[in-house]
# Entry
Amino acid sequence: MFRFFAVTYFVKIALFASYACASTIQDGDSAGCIIRTHDAVILVRDVWTNKLSVPGGHRHKSESPQKAAERETLEETGIIATATRQVGTFRGFRLYSCTPTNSISFVGRNARVPSTASVETKEIILLPLSELSPETVRYSKQISLISEGFIRSEVASPFLIEEKETGLRLATPWQLASIHFSKSLQAAVPPVLAFF
# Structure
């Protein structure tokens, strides 16, 4: 039991040291994804700082900034995303408009953090852009980058749709078409026939 806690402790120290080195990044050494809905953006709450940021991080030597943004988003949120175009840059951090290719469920504003992301990510949150503040964001000077990226990026397709008891869910275009078709059928059936 002691070994487990000791190893966990040293892993956390190593991760914290890598965060401490983040202030020495060079241009293009880190990248992230902005995944947006009509009025909100997906952010992650960092384990170490308890602050919010877009999913992202350092790139490996052999990978492009787009691939780094995609990999970091997968690692921190479990979302498989495709970085479509760069929408902003700030002190070596490149922000890409990203389109998710898998589903993620939200209950209220929060999504379940995958076990693979729990070392870095405390919470995945769907936050309206109007609620971003310097007190809650990890890099407060990136608020303008996130706002600019939000404006310049496309609304994520798959879209966020509302479900009855489970909150919100990112659905694929096929799932959306099926839901819209079902709703149109339900609307076309008179209420009297709905009981049969």
Notes: The radius of gyration is 19 Å.
